[in-house]
């Protein structure tokens, strides 16, 4: 049997979202519930996919099927497409499985032409209405289907108004609209070189095709990538017979939510306009009335609408966002869908609905989009201020939240401006450990280079600081203290604003509002904790971050990057001295300076973590991040090491690497310089002994983690140094202290030889940042510059550094877990790469049966919720 590409509403229901899109499926459902929905049919998402498979052409049999259903629609409505005696007009609307603001939305009044408009004028005895509808249609169709910008038509409207000496559309007459139609058509022809299509069937097919095309426009592609929506879903197209809200004062149109989408309050919330069509409400030309007033103006309609709203909410068990039209006193429902809402409203609605007995706790957990919690945890732009703001550019949304401040171009300037009481945005080509103080005081960070796991991104996320990274279009001149973006020159001290959730950059000051955590947040998180099976740890390098993570619900540290503990200005010199040492004696001197600080830091972290597990990763400094570049820094180091500046430069040159990310880092440093592991082991074990003495009730078991292992024998070599040093310290102290030794798995070779590796350790922790880098063979710092080409061409749909590539990197992880646990049944396995805080990746880690994921403190709540959702939906490997 031939495939069916078109469905009448009476043939569908809410469970058919995949095929009919959200809009089509819900309209079908409402029809089934006996509500008055204008007759319609839906062209399926499969037809959209077929359109792309057929080289962007609608296949003849699909066109035939559309026309066959058009005939059915004519039969049901008793109206005929293109017949001036009794014309059928339709709206054409896009509708993907998930609602997507990036796509084409709606074309109204399709089917109008020069003869049909006359018919409507006669039938309604309202030529003004007829020509107003016609000019709207020409404008909308030209804009969304034919790419003739809407604004070019607005100019014509302004001309006519000026000529007539009026300021509002309502003051224009039927004749004015008639003139407008003629002028619009001329304008169209001038622009396109052919006449505005007058055949309604041609209009219909062009509109359907435009919806399909809009699935692949840059806005839609971007939205999909941000929201984990696969390209393969496609969009459906709903063709619906028109009802008219602009037929007089007993007609109108509006939108409403069953609860307040900003606060969650349980009260019908919305607005409507009398004698208007849908786009008037959105366009903001006239001020709509609040929905409550409909109770006075049209009490019957209001009651019917309020009842319908309640019925829909109870039916969908979710807050609904509805569109409706009133045609000559009769209510029609044009759409219902789960309403978009702020995170605060989402939490309140979920908790309220549980109290009302409408949903279960499990359903409440499924109702919240984990990533949306970002906006509860970070400052956001003031809603009114952001509404009309236009970004001057975009970069990668590296760390969420909103920030507004004065631009500075160096860490020192950031500290200085901050000291003078100014909020600052630190703008750099890229950041390095030298910038850490500047990053700490900044409201936000903007970089020209670097990806989602670059230094700026990882550090900013750890701090909960807003960051937009890798903005390719920006031209930064750090010396001249200015940058150019979107044609605008921004100088030091100018205000800009950043949205770390979308990656948008604004060349102006936009006010922000602080984050606040509600009781509903805690309630929902508590339910999530009861359900999830994955443990959630955090990536933290300081006692302060550790304490914050505990507050956010972390159950341990999964990654303490010890090299990050030396970022601060008064410490980085000692770290550099260690790196630049040319012999063991020198290095031991430098290490001895580092030891007491590191021990004190570890004590602070053990204390902050109150006996929860703490995984300490041994030094893994990619050399390029730590070597000094500034004259000043080189001078300071020369003084400290008692060497000439020329000698320091010489050593730096000798350490230069072409590929630092694949260079002399991680365990390779320890293989070359075992004294580094000896110092770090001493610091960890002594700190643990000290804190255990202070808090005898806690059971402190430090987890020592060796990074960047690729070969079991190199791990064995390093582990021997750790065990020998640790056992000696413990024996000398005369105490009992357990500790664990594990390794990061971040090189493909370690994954495929995981059975050999596991023999030497008690745990694996997957460093999915490096594992992604090494598996794809592209740099985590540089891939931002070319990945866009891959998205445009649909080769990749998302950034593999943000969302785990389950097919490739995921398979390596699966192999490693399987081999590792076969060799050692008790092997603990977790994830500490950035993917540990990404909901779709967490789902995958849950399925694999990992013990925990670890992420930056601010992502801990997101991970708790995502893990609970995974537990509710997916089985887990034993
Ligand atoms: C990783 O590679 O995933 C990891 C956590 O280590 P880092 O980001 O410090 O290289
Ligand atoms: Mg790594």
Q: How much β-strand is present in the residues?
A: 15-25%
Poorly predicted regions are: none
Shape call = elongated
Task: Calculate Rg over CA atoms.
Answer: 31 Å
- Note the total helix count: 36
Spatial order of the strands forming the largest sheet: 14-24-23-16-17-18-19-15
Bound ligands, each once? phosphoenolpyruvate, magnesium ion
Question: Percentage of helical residues?
Answer: 40-55%
Beginning-to-end CA distance, first to last residue: 43 Å
Task: Return the structural class.
Answer: alpha/beta
Mean pLDDT: 93
Describe the main β-sheet briefly: 8 strands, mixed
Number of strands: 33
Keywords:
878 residues, alpha/beta, eight-stranded mixed β-sheet, eight-stranded parallel beta barrel, 33 strands, 47% helix, binds phosphoenolpyruvate, binds magnesium ion
Describe, in plain words, how this protein is organized in 3D.
52% of the residues are buried. The strands form 7 sheets. Strands 14-24-23-16-17-18-19-15 form an 8-stranded mixed β-sheet. Strands 26-27-28-29-30-31-32-33 form an 8-stranded parallel β-barrel, surrounded by 5 helices. Helix 13 crosses helix 20 and helix 22 (569-580) crosses helix 23. The model has no long low-confidence stretch (mean pLDDT 93). The chain has 878 residues and is of the alpha/beta class. The two termini are 43 Å apart. It is built from 36 helices and 33 strands.
